[in-house]
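Students often ask what a 'structure token' actually looks like in practice. Rather than answer in the abstract, let us consider Bifunctional metallophosphatase/5'-nucleotidase, a protein of 599 residues. Its sequence is given first.
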Amino acid sequence: MPAAPKSPGRRRWREAAVATAALLALTPAPAATADPAPGVPVQLLSITDLHGYFGEYTTTVPGSHAGEPAKTVGGGAYLASHLKRLRAQKNSVLFSAGDDFSGWPAETAWFWNEPTIEYMNMIGVEFSTVGNHEIDRKPAYLKHMMEGTCQGRPDRDLCFTDSTGTRFRGADFDYYSANVVNDVTGRPLVEPYHVRQVDDGRGGTLPVGFIHATTTHTPNEQLSYWPSELKFLPEAQTINRYAEELRGRGVQAIVAVVHEGFSQDSGAGYNDCTAPFGPLADMNKQISPAVDAIVGGHWHALVNCMLPDPASNPRPVVEAANHGRLINEITLELDPATGDVRRDRTKSVSHANTRDVAPDPEVQRMAKYWKDRLPARGNQQVATVTGDLTRTAGADEESTLGNVTADAFLWAANKDGQADLAVAMPGILLRDIPFAPNPGNPADAPGRVLFSELVFGTVYENGIGPAVVRGTVTGKKLHELIESQWQRGTDGAVTYRHMAVSGNVSYTYDPGAPIGQHVDIKKIRIDNKPVKADREYRIATLANNFFARNATPGFTALFDARNQDRSVYSGADALWKYMEARSPVRPPTLDRVRPAPGG
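Now compare that with the structural description of the same chain:
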């Protein structure tokens, strides 16, 4: 997983960094005042973008400041130990800024992220913001992770037995987001904010409000593409609305936890703030001065800033990297009489998850439990085949695996919706499904297809992959999509990149025709009926081919497809469950797309 920012426009934000730095230089220092009454300390400890890296994991971070040597970091057991040490004080709050899910390590990915929740329960996470990866699947899946409902996938392959011998029960904490709402009712998907009472040291409590938001770029992420059902409101505007509501309830100390990121110049240390740039830095200029701290994520960046709010008062704006590499610590001091934050007493520092402490033995035991279950999970038989399902040597050839995948997408699309046809774009299949057993695995046998062979690594390299999405196009657009298989390069040469079609589709083409004229629309047939240019058709394929980002290059005809909606199936789910339902799967004949006679 690259550590580069995931949001677009990095260059634009970097160019704006000089102006930000100048503004910082002009920020006035707070005026000296008489010593007030002793304040109430509140410690905010945050991690972000864990992505299931609770097991044995080693990487590096730069030094705390520019010029300092890099540090070796990583591993959930070390993170747990550091957190125990840091939390040895009252009014300590530990939380995540999102993207706990979509773990790439097999020990969590193969069990649908439930082990990640066990880990976060174990280390005492109190709440988390909904990141884009928390909604890679339908909302029912997030509910499953929060409540242990055993629902939220296209099958009931959920609620595994955890390392304590207990069936998955869900998170001991809640997920929040203010700006992810139902696109019909406008109601938030989860609660928008919450209030944490802290000990005031005098026998009472003081409130601290936490408002949460999710990046509005979520619909442009290929795994969490939401063309309908969910709507993403502007982050800063939504935060300001709820900040006003909290102030109306008498809450003076307010923290925004936003799954959106920013970064700084390369070469800076993780506790530097050198020319910060990015959407969260921009958002800071728009978020109400009523908000006393902003904790971010999403960009996998290492940055710890004190930036001026719209009233020119410095406040912390931070992002604590990813995969458990850093922990950010913000210390607030509350006025014991008003509950407001004494901004001039606010401090922020990030700590590296170094491996120079004793690893937490309970986390090590838990991580080993899940890792030890990988062989049994991977060797589960999920389907059988009567022959090889293969890709092809060339980009211009129909393939058995491509045809099965297109059939699977259509099957999945019609399980919880309706589609007339499906396509599988070139380049999405990463390996073949052979009939012969793997000679290095005694659990394999001729024709047996294992979980580790099919579910992970066939349609998407590191995990379950984009959803199957349906959309409505005209016959004219469908014809345009088929014609886009022939693409002219910058050198003028034309390349044919075969797109697999579901078994109810057929057409012939003229290999020697000019661009845009290879296929006669009258020769395209769906369910043995000719396609009509002005008729509408529901087409299904992977989500990333319905929008520009991460789409298969050259295939743009689906970008304007109407009435788009997500299936509950991902591409990998679709292939898996289709093959399971149709086993034994026979390699399909290669006769859906043919050169025209004499062509």
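One point worth highlighting: The CA atoms of residues 213 and 258 lie 5 Å apart. Ask yourself how you might have guessed this from the sequence alone, and why that guess would often be unreliable.
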